[in-house]
UniProtKB/TrEMBL annotation:
Its main location: cytoplasm. The keyword Phosphoprotein applies. The modification Phosphoserine is found at S122. It holds the Pfam family NDK. (Microbial infection) Catalyzes the phosphorylation of dZDP to dZTP, when the bacterium is infected by a phage that produces the substrate for the synthesis of dZTP (2- amino-2'-deoxyadenosine 5'-triphosphate), which is then used by the phage as a DNA polymerase substrate. Keywords: ATP-binding, Cytoplasm, Kinase, Magnesium, Metal-binding, Nucleotide metabolism, Nucleotide-binding, Phosphoprotein, Transferase. This is Nucleoside diphosphate kinase. Belongs to the NDK family. It is found in: Cytoplasm. One of its GO terms (cellular component) is cytoplasm. Residues 1-138 form the Nucleoside diphosphate kinase-like domain. Its cofactor is Mg(2+). GO terms for biological process: CTP biosynthetic process; GTP biosynthetic process; UTP biosynthetic process.
Length: 148
């Protein structure tokens, strides 16, 4: 089944939103395959956001994502990459629809609470960057037949 990498950023952790965010993905019907609270190193931050290296906000982005603990997760389910991006909402919370995570909980693009992989390729790259194979668990949720 398809997997994606989701991360509650330092602002989401400090604002006590880990539980709310986990709950949304759980209630949606996705399966939690791995999770950990961690402090991102500068090296990992620069690698993770490598595609934005030339952007003017890159330094600010790396400083922000390393400014406190993050809650890193792997979620699994049908079309989970694309659906998660809808659940998260637009990059700029001012444009994110109400009902989306950024639409409901964030105000500025620099502090937008949560990260989600933007493609299947990014998901694979980011999962491997943040998790070892032995940190992921393969199991079936009891309600699977009521979701699919
Ligand atoms: P991620 O899930 O975090 O990757 O967000 P995204 O895929 O919706 O957006 P994108 O990958 O284009 O940008 C990565 C992150 O850079 C965003 O989530 C923002 O936190 C940050 N970012 C993007 N544009 C700006 C900006 O203009 N200023 C600042 N300070 N941060 C920005
Ligand atoms: Mg992105």
């Amino acid at each position: 089944m398809e997997k994606t990498f989701i991360m509650v950023k330092p602002d989401g952790v400090q604002r006590g939103l880990i539980g709310e965010i986990v709950s949304r993905f759980e209630k949606k019907g996705f399966v939690l395959a791995g999770a950990k609270l961690m402090q991102i190193s500068t090296e990992l931050a620069e690698e993770h956001y490598g595609e934005h290296k030339e952007r003017p906000f890159f330094g600010e982005l790396v400083d922000f994502i390393t400014s406190g603990p993050v809650f890193a997760m792997v979620w699994e389910g049908e079309d989970v990459v694309k659906t998660s991006r809808h659940m998260i909402g637009a990059t700029n919370p001012q444009e994110a629809n109400p009902g989306s995570i950024r639409g409901d909980y964030a105000v500025t693009v620099g502090k937008n609470i949560i990260h989600g992989s933007d493609s299947l390729e990014s998901a694979e790259r980011e999962i491997n960057l943040f998790f070892n194979g032995n940190e992921l668990v393969d199991y079936t949720r009891q309600d699977k037949t009521w979701i699919y």
